Amino acid sequence: MPEQPSPATADASASAGYRQMLVALMFGGLANFSLLYFVQPLLPLLVSQYDVSPAESAHALSITTAALTLGLLMAGSLADRFGRVQVMRASLVLSGILGLAAAIAPTWSVLLVVRGLVGVTLAWFPAAALAYLREAVPHESHGRANAAYIAGTAIGGAVGRLLPGPLAALGGWTMTATAMSLLTLVSGLVLWALLPVPAGWRPHRAELRHVLLGTVMAPSDAVVAWLCVAGFTSMGAFVAIYNAAAFQLQAPPFSLGHAVGWVYFAYPLGIGAPYLLRRVAERRGRGVATVIGAVGLPIAVLLTALPSVFGMFVALGVLTFAFLGTHSLLSGWVVDRAARRHRGTAQASSAYLLAYYLGSTVAGAVATWLWQLFGWNAVEALGLILTGLTIVAVVIATLADRTPQTSLDAQPTHV
Q1: Cβ contacts of 166 within 8 Å, gap of 6 or more
Q2: In the prediction, which pLDDT does 201 show?
């Protein structure tokens, strides 16, 4: 049984409870993304500390995102059985504790095992959060609430890329991993305090078949399937460029060394993207707004060819802006589509996120391998292929979702 809107969220954006809910979810999204991605700018550090190759160092991130897919397979059913809020709380607290264990990992193998476990527990939060937003927020405010949540994840991505450099300079891997894990635990406590369990919620014991197949079967809807493809390719391109950029900027002609962290100040440029593209969606439709965001992705990839640090800064800023805006619309679209088809929203969000993080896992690892063997041109080619496929998938999803199939489709849906 889905959670019912609480009185605090019944009066949309004018409600103090609504604002409190958004603050809690933004803190959660911040912690989730920062703990997941803080290893990205530290890949060169991991190369020296654990005596691994650049391609191997990417496993510290790719194994986490790969394990996310396992966590996402169970996330929807866990949220139905124990509640969206309880699962979000458990996700942050367990992830923070595991992160502290990763901080003191004595060997590369141990680090990878712990980071894999972190991936499983981190997966529960976004799947439950997206479903919670769709169910606890009135339809007219859902786009605004989803944009606020994605902005929180964007801030987390910025924190996860900007803090590690200075922290690593002070105390290396151990200090950095400890600080990011404590941030996650604090965010979990904030979520615990500000996001109460909705009144009247009752646990729903799902059948075994639903537990095993609910997430996997969600893309049987054609629109959800194409949105999952767009999530895979857009996230894949985003992580591929950022992973390889950490090495490219330390190599000639850039040779930035530890100063490479300054380039990640491009990341905050994308934080406003969810709000801006949401406004476009309100005026022109969600499909058009998502296509606009997707078109910005290959433009950003092309800009990475500029032979200057400033050029890379601009490219990463455009890439982040386009990606976060696109992801904000895709993640809201997929649960809205599931709700209109009377399908499980938690399972649909899990399916989208599974594809999303699978793209991160595969493309992120491939990008560092391509950079090591063939240089930046190969990484750029990979990015262009993935972003081109993103545009195709979004266009097909837009056309498919405009085809009336039930009476429910005749209602305004902001597609």
Answers
A1: 261
A2: 54
Residues whose CB is less than 8 angstroms from the CB of residue 170 and which lie 6 or more positions away in sequence, other chains included = none
Catalogue the long-range contacts made by 14-21 (C-beta closer than 8 Å, 24 or more residues apart): 18/137, 18/141, 18/145, 20/194, 20/195, 21/136, 21/145, 21/194, 21/195
Q: Let me know if residue 415 belongs to a domain.
A: no
Per-residue pLDDT for 196 more than 80? no
User: In the chain, how many domains are there?
Assistant: 1
Assess contact for 25 and 149: CB atoms under 8 A. yes
pLDDT 10s digits, 338-393: 878 777 676 787 788 888 888 988 998 899 899 989 999 999 999 999 999 999 99
Residue 133 domain-assigned (yes or no): yes
Q: Please return the burial class of 256, using the count of CB atoms within 10 Å of its CB with bins 0-12, 13-18 and 19+.
A: middle
Which residue in the block uniquely carries the two structure tokens 């009336």? 404
| Stated pTM of the model | 0.74
Q: Using CA of residue 167, residue 168, residue 171, residue 174, what is the dihedral sign? A: positive
Phi-psi region of 107 (alpha: psi -120 to 50; beta: other; left: phi over 0): beta
Per the domain annotation, does 388 fall within a domain? yes
- What does the alpha-carbon distance between residue 147 and residue 242 come to, in Å, rounded to a whole number? 23
Q: What residues have CB less than 8 Å from 305, skipping those under 6 apart?
A: 311, 376, 380
What CATH number is associated with residue 275? 1.20.1250.20
Q: Nearest 5°: CA angle at 127, between 122 and 132?
A: 125
Decide if 2 is inside a domain: no
Contact 317, 179 (CB under 8 A): no
State which residues form the domain around 73.
7-198+206-410
Question: Residues 81-117: pLDDT tens digits?
Answer: 777 888 899 999 999 999 999 999 999 999 999 999 9
**Residue 110 token pair:** 């141990």
Residue 194 has which token pair?
A: 């500000």
Q: How confident is the model at residue 8 (pLDDT cuts 50, 70, 90)?
A: very low
| Nearest C-alpha neighbor of 329 from the set 280, 274, 283, 285 | 274
Please tell me the distance from the alpha carbon of residue 108 to that of residue 102, in angstroms, as a whole number: 10
What is the rounded distance in angstroms from the CA atom of residue 234 to the CA atom of residue 291?
A: 12
| pLDDT value at residue 198 | 62
Say if residues 168 and 49 touch (Cβ distance below 8 Å). no
